[in-house]
Design goal:
- This protein has a four-stranded mixed β-sheet with strand order 1-7-6-5. Strands 2-3-4 form a three-stranded mixed β-sheet.
- It starts with a helix and ends in a 6-residue tail after the last helix.
- 41% of the residues lie in helices and 18% in strands.
- The radius of gyration is 18 Å and the shape is globular.
- The longest helix is centred in the middle third of the chain and has 13 residues.
- The relative contact order is 0.22.
- By secondary structure, the chain is of the alpha/beta class.
- It is built from seven helices and seven strands.
Length: 157
């Protein structure tokens, strides 16, 4: 089975010139944790994820463990202020410019191995030779495909 058979086609995307506030709204509405980010020609320039957004609002010294007592950590007001600042930023400031990109002919096993080895996100972008987005595959999509293969609902052809 190949990536193009299990990928989600026509995924929700973001454009690099958008504001984070609009992208966050779209992600919430669609109940998504990641969006591919495209330039004006439809070429993938990166991804934006809820994980990277969370990393932008939690202070580095909390994440690094430099603060011995969490009771001295910033209160919700500080986190809210960081969140408000995040919303006012342009999307291009927040993207991960090195997403996992695969070609549509990748095997299911190859896609699974790539996702495990990548360790940054549970999504792979399926792109053509010019990096135009064709679809997205999540770890869950692979598990669903395996379930379909095992139950006989999907064939490997």
């Amino acid at each position: 089975m190949f990536a193009e058979r299990i990928m989600i086609k026509n995924p929700v995307t973001a454009r690099q010139g958008e504001r984070m506030k609009d992208v966050l709204f779209r992600m919430r509405e669609a109940k998504l944790r990641m969006l591919p980010v495209l330039d004006d020609d439809g070429v993938v320039v990166g991804i934006v994820s809820t994980f990277s957004m969370l990393g932008a609002i939690v202070p580095d010294y909390i994440v690094s463990g430099d603060l011995n007592q969490i009771s001295y950590a910033p209160d919700m007001g500080v986190l809210r202020r960081h969140y408000d600042e995040l919303q006012s930023k342009k999307l291009i400031e927040m993207i991960d410019k090195e997403p996992l990109m695969l070609n549509p002919e990748e095997s299911l096993l190859s896609v699974a191995a790539s996702l495990i080895g990548f360790r940054k996100h549970e999504y792979a972008l399926v792109v053509d030779e010019q990096k135009h987005l064709l679809g997205i595959i999540s770890a869950g999509d692979i598990l669903d495909a395996m379930d379909g293969l095992l139950s006989g609902e999907v064939t490997d052809a």
